[in-house]
Amino acid sequence: MKTIFITGASSGLGKETAKLFQRKGWRVIATMRNPEKEQELNLLNNVHLLAMDITDSVQVKQAFKEAVSIATIDVVFNNAGYGLVGPFETYTEQQIARQIDTNLNGVLRVAHPFVSYFREKGIKGIFITTTSIYGIVANPLSSIYCATKFALEGWSESMGYDMAAFGIKFKTIAPGGIKTSFAGAAMDLTYHEAYNPILERMTKGFESGELIHFTEPEEIAQRVYEAATDGTDTIRYVAGIDAVEISRLRDDLGIEANSRRINEIYKVKNFLNF
Ligand SMILES: NC(=O)c1ccc[n+]([C@@H]2O[C@H](COP(=O)([O-])OP(=O)(O)OC[C@H]3O[C@@H](n4cnc5c(N)ncnc54)[C@H](OP(=O)(O)O)[C@@H]3O)[C@@H](O)[C@H]2O)c1
């Protein structure tokens, strides 16, 4: 039986991925900050819940030790994260540090012990990291979020080169919008009235579906399954029709696609030239 280790399995994409892999006959190590609150995954066969806040080094090390004592791990799905949204100048130092410590450092913290584990044990493991289409093409009012997701794309790609000789793969899932609490309760939002025009445009674009399409998390989880099982060396799985379209524009037009798309959608000011 193959085993997947998942972060952020309490909700959204992480939870749907846990359920999908369990249905497919995998053992699932579902990590989350508050496993005592979980009411669904705890009822499933071959699903093990472990407590882990990815910003807590002690808990990360402990969860790693427990996980490898339960089973040989085949796939590490580094998925936990949240969105800090608003104008850069309104973020506090703590908000910036927390966003980076979760979305970027949290992923590195979790991956770190598994890299040596896979290499030393000769396991041809796969790391799958949830980034975002905003880790490939930036969006306004998401500067630090984009910084973390761009960083993860670079980290994963570079790691892929380092680890290829050992048969260890690094892949990313870059979704567009997903119907989860991410765009609601989980988001850390800041405001400044000077940025209202762009914020209003963005809100309208989100609501109308012009800027983003929210895909069901089950559909994105299918791409995670594909990444874990397709046997290819594909390094990035762009997931969701919005992400595929944005990515296609980017491939066709190069980096200029970013400014064209943003200028067309936002019509606030022709503010970017590449
Ligand atoms: N939804 C979207 O539109 C969208 C689009 C592109 C990419 N993504 C990415 O998809 C991933 C999953 O998000 P989602 O959409 O499934 O949203 P979600 O339902 O809010 O899930 C986020 C998960 O991350 C966990 N988490 C947050 N901080 C954590 C920490 N310090 N330690 C451990 N777990 C932590 C949350 O746990 P708690 O329940 O304890 O808070 C939750 O399980 C994120 O990396 C996000 O950036 C989402």
Automatic annotation (TrEMBL):
UniProt entry tagged with the keyword Mitochondrion: no
Top-rank taxon: Bacteria
Signal sequence annotation: none
InterPro entries: NAD(P)-bd_dom_sf, Sc_DH/Rdtase_CS, SDR_fam, SDR_oxidoreductase
Keyword terms of this UniProt record: Oxidoreductase
Keyword Oxidoreductase: yes
Gene Ontology terms for molecular function: oxidoreductase activity
PANTHER family: SHORT CHAIN DEHYDROGENASE, SHORT-CHAIN DEHYDROGENASE_REDUCTASE FAMILY PROTEIN
Family per record: Belongs to the short-chain dehydrogenases/reductases (SDR) family.
Name of this protein: Short-chain dehydrogenase
Source organism: Flavobacterium beibuense
